[in-house]
Amino acid sequence: MAETVWSTDTGEAVYRSRDPVRNLRLRVHLQRITSSNFLHYQPAAELGKDLIDLATFRPQPTASGHRPEEDEEEEIVIGWQEKLFSQFEVDLYQNETACQSPLDYQYRQEILKLENSGGKKNRRIFTYTDSDRYTNLEEAWL
Questions:
Q1: ATP-binding among the record's keywords (predicted)?
Q2: Could you tell me where the beta strands, DSSP code E, fall in the chain?
Q3: Do 111 and 93 touch, CB atoms closer than 8 A?
Q4: CA dihedral 70, 30, 93, 98 (to 10 degrees)
Q5: How far apart are CA 43 and CA 32, in angstroms?
Q6: Could you tell me which of 95, 97, 84, 96 has the C-alpha nearest to residue 134?
Q7: Rounded mean pLDDT of the chain?
Q8: Mean pLDDT over residues 75-86, rounded?
Q9: What does the pLDDT read at residue 63?
Q10: CA 51 remoteness from chain centre
Q11: Residue 111: CB partners within 8 Å, gap ≥ 6?
């Protein structure tokens, strides 16, 4: 049984579930907003509902009918403690001398495998996990 609690003051929400946290999935969608993009506000259908439908922020077709360039937006589904490498990490771990721990070597192997297989690269969306050395900001500034 899941329960959702909304806070209208801050725009944040708490979602409670009895499912194991490893089942958590988040869909993240980033889109560059420019003066050529239009936001079409669609009022909520229910009275008293002061939320904006997420469809409001979807890219609108241009006059010629095509969507914004692919590099203008990125969408991905992320699982709990799933590692997505930043460009900094990709550059760092390609250099074997930067590896200091078994986890660093594991990340190096994963990055090399992704590079060799032509796997999908994320551009702006990346994650840190509990075991990353960059999770603690004091350690990130060595």
A1: no
A2: 3-6, 13-16, 25-31, 73-79
A3: yes
A4: 140
A5: 23
A6: 84
A7: 75
A8: 92
A9: 57
A10: 22
A11: 85, 89, 90, 93, 94
